[in-house]
C-alpha cells in the first residue's frame, strides 16, 4: 500500500490514533518495571532520604537549605530520565526489532501515531510522578511548594520534553531492544549525576557546577531549584533546556529509522 493510501486511511478512520493510544496505555500498565522506575522509585527514594535525620537538619544542605529541600528537585527529575532512557527507548526499539513499525506503514495507522502515543504516555507518567514527589516533600517533610509556580512549571515541562527527546534519540539509533537498553544505561548514570542524585548541583565545586549546568539535566536541576527558592528560573538555564530540546528532537527526527 502506498503512503498516499495509508494516509488517506487515517482520514477515513479518525479514531485510529486514539485506539493506538488506548492500546499502548494498556501495554504500559502491564510493564511493572517501567511503572516502578517512573512512578514508584523516585518518591520512595525521597521518603528514604527524608527519614534520615541529617537530611532534615537545618542548614545541612547548600545555601542554608536542608538536604531534603535540595533533593526534592532531584527526585522530580528522576522520572523524566527513567521515562525517556529506561522505559520508552527500549519499547520503541523493540517495535522496530519485531517489524511492528514496518508493518504499521501498510495500515491506516502510521508509525508516528505509535511514537506520539508512547511519548504522551511516558511524558504524562513522568509528570505525575514529579508532582507526587512535590506532594510527598510538602506533606511528609514540610518542604515548601515552589513559590514561583509558573517558572517551576515551565522548567518542568521543558525538562519533560528534553527527557523524552533524549529517549527518542536513543530509540532512533538502536536496532534492537537490548541495544537500546545498553545505550540508555550508558547515558542514564551521567544524566543522574548531572541531575544531582549523588551530589546536588548547588553543592558541586564552582567549575564542575558550571560544566554540569550546560547539560540538559544540570540546567533543569538548577532551574527547578531557583523556582523552588522563589526566584524566576535563570534565563540561561531555560535557554540551555530549549537548545537541548531542539537539538535532541531534531537529531531524533533526522536519524530515526522505521525498519
UniProtKB/TrEMBL annotation:
It comes from Streptomyces kunmingensis. Residues 33-259 form the ABC transmembrane type-2 domain. It is found in: Cell membrane; Membrane. Signal peptide: none annotated. Its main location: membrane. It is a multi-pass membrane protein. The keyword Transit peptide does not apply. Keywords: Antibiotic resistance, Cell membrane, Membrane, Transmembrane, Transmembrane helix, Transport. The chain crosses the membrane at residues 34-55, 70-93, 114-137, 149-172, 179-201, 235-256. The lineage of its organism: Bacteria, Bacillati, Actinomycetota, Actinomycetes, Kitasatosporales. Belongs to the ABC-2 integral membrane protein family. This is Transport permease protein. Pfam families: ABC2_membrane. The keyword Transport applies.
